[in-house]
Design goal:
Largest sheet: 8 strands, mixed
Radius of gyration: 15 Å
CATH class: Alpha Beta
Number of helices: 2
CATH superfamily: Nucleoside Triphosphate Pyrophosphohydrolase
Order of helices and strands: EEEEEHEEEH
Shape: globular
Distance between the termini: 41 Å
Structural class: alpha+beta
Strand content: 35-45%
Helix content: 10-25%
Mean pLDDT: 93
Length: about 140
């Protein structure tokens, strides 16, 4: 629970992976019937009570995409108000430890994009700070 502007709001701790493979970044589109259906996001999910965020990310990617990853450095951590809920999203760099995923339990489409193509998608609000952080990283001289 967090208090912003004198209003108590529920808070959800979430982790996501910016998976870069052969110069392309994985973007996933939320399936119909899911929150934020039709919006794009980095794959990941909720951190369970007492769970290490990096362990949660590995677990979520195995459940969602059936892939194993090496979780790297924190790319971005931002808090975004979505309705009455504050989403505390930590996005990490991640490297696949096997083949690219072919399907997802939470998404109806997976797409590999160059970093300069990321801004063309309709991203879910909590993922935007990480998208901008990736674009900024790759545009540095």
């Amino acid at each position: 629970m967090t208090t912003e502007f004198g209003i108590a709001r529920a808070e959800l701790e979430v982790v996501a992976a910016a998976i870069i493979d052969d110069g392309a970044v994985l973007a996933c589109r939320r399936a119909e019937g899911k929150a934020a259906a039709g919006k794009w996001e980095f794959p990941g999910g909720k951190v369970e009570g007492g769970e290490d965020p990096r362990a949660a990310l590995r677990r979520e990617l195995l459940e969602e995409l059936n892939v194993e990853v090496r979780v790297g450095e924190l790319l971005d951590r931002s808090r975004t108000l979505v309705g009455d809920l504050v989403i505390d999203l930590a996005t990490y760099d991640a490297t696949l430890l096997g083949p690219r995923p072919g399907e997802s339990t939470d998404h109806d489409q997976l797409m590999w994009l160059r970093v300069d193509e990321l801004a063309d998608l309709g991203w879910a609000a909590p993922d935007l700070p990480a998208v901008f952080a990736l674009i900024e990283r790759f545009n540095r001289p």
